[in-house]
Design a protein that fits this description.
Layout lengths: L1 H8 L7 E5 L10 E5 L6 H17 L5 E6 L3 H4 L9 H14 L3 H9 L8 H6 L3 E7 L22 H10 L8 H11 L17 E7 L1 H14 L3 E9 L3 H18 L7 E7 L14 H12 L6 E7 L11 E5 L2 H7 L4 H6 L3 H8 L2 E2 L10 E7 L1
Parallel strand pairs: 1-2, 3-4, 4-5, 6-7
Antiparallel strand pairs: 7-11, 8-9, 8-11, 9-10
């Protein structure tokens, strides 16, 4: 995105900063490039946020145009803890929310209220300047207040929502004391809420989504059709517990092979979105796409001519170097001959180590974009 802006605007750019995940880099000439940690922020995330906030404050004014390039991952990459909150507090809250199975809307609702930049606060810093936000969506239903925690977009969540989310997942007593104190201060009116749609700071802000999961699925369906498959897009808004969603996809594949319903082979059935994995205290290594593939492999075990692929469009899945995995109806049986119990690996959330042994990982490296996950089933 930054490279494209440099190519289009060229000499009109006076300054700029972009922060990306480690390794997700391209050569830039006028915009400063920083790398930071994802999905849990690190000290570099704080440094990046401070530099971007400083750039906005120093250049804000009625004659300034800010081009705000926003994509998935910004919630972790742009970390500016609110007063009384430390980076360690945000790291712990992020970890707890990721492990409990909370969805991205819930996670970001909490993070926005612990931040000095998220939830519209970056627009507050712009002080009357014009902001054009160009957004790549990585969330269900393309919610602009959730993508990257909406630093330049009105926030629809409140302090009440934050406490309700922490209580819903039994995290209220587990989060750091400073977090509980801040939420209670917000609930009592001692702290302002994040800016809502009627805040004057959004008067000069325009926001456009330039890429989404729906577009990716449409392109994949067109490619499948060109190759002789009848495509069917189930949804670009798939969410829920990963293994349950994967089994449902596997059941659809079985239905197609047995009854040619909802369409006959050869076909390509597609879906996208962002599922969640509820973790136990002790677990193995993997990501939601690898877990999806492993659960699907168990469901399609024994089926002929069926392939299931699940991958993150950014080229990374969880804390691994894989984007996901691809399996067939033979995967579980072949693994069994290698002494691998697929059910046991799934139970331990250890899909990466399973697929690294079977050779079914998909490793693409960074794709430099992020429109959530893509699930694909080929049935011939």
């Amino acid at each position: 995105m930054a490279l494209a802006v440099e190519e289009i605007l060229g000499h009109m750019i006076s300054c700029g900063i972009v922060v990306v995940k480690d390794g997700h880099v391209m050569p830039l000439s006028k915009i400063k490039l920083l790398e930071a940690s994802h999905p849990v922020p690190d000290e570099r995330s704080v440094v990046a946020a401070r530099q971007i906030m400083g750039l906005v404050e120093e250049n804000a004014g009625p004659s300034t145009l800010f081009v705000n390039l926003l994509s998935g991952g910004a919630s972790a990459l742009l970390a500016a803890p609110a007063p009384g909150i430390t980076l360690e507090h945000k790291q712990e809250v992020t970890r707890l929310l990721l492990e409990c199975g909370a969805d991205i809307q819930e996670i970001n609702a909490v993070r926005k209220h612990l931040s000095a930049v998220k939830g519209g606060n970056l627009a507050r810093l712009a002080a009357g300047a014009t902001i054009i936000s160009l957004v790549i969506s990585d969330v269900i239903h393309d919610r602009l207040d959730t993508i990257g925690s909406g630093p330049a977009f009105p926030d629809s969540t409140t302090w009440e929502d934050v406490k309700a989310i922490l209580l819903r997942y039994d995290l209220w007593e587990r989060v750091p004391n400073a977090v509980r104190e801040r939420v209670e201060q917000g609930l009592s009116g001692e702290l302002p809420d994040t800016p809502s749609a009627d805040d004057p700071c959004f008067k000069g802000v325009t926001t456009s989504i330039i890429a989404s999961n729906r577009q990716a699925l449409s392109a994949a369906a067109a490619a499948a059709k060109d190759r002789g498959y009848t495509p069917l897009v189930l949804s670009s808004s798939i969410q829920g517990e990963t293994s349950d969603i994967a089994r449902m996809h596997g059941a659809i594949a079985r239905e197609v092979t047995e009854t040619a319903n909802p369409l006959p082979p050869p076909c390509c059935i597609l879906s996208g979105g962002e599922t969640t994995v509820t973790m136990e205290d002790r677990h193995g290594k993997g990501g939601r796409n690898q877990e999806f593939a492993l659960a699907a492999a168990l469901e399609i075990d024994g089926l002929e001519n069926v392939l299931v692929l699940s991958a993150g469009t950014d080229g990374t899945d969880g804390p691994t170097d894989a984007a996901g995995a691809a399996v067939t109806g033979k995967s579980v049986g072949l693994a069994k001959k290698m002494g691998l119990d697929a059910e046991d690996f799934l139970k331990r959330h250890d899909a990466y180590n399973f697929f690294s042994k079977t050779g079914e990982l998909i490793i693409t490296g960074p794709t430099l974009t992020n429109v959530m996950d893509v699930h694909l089933m080929l049935i011939v």
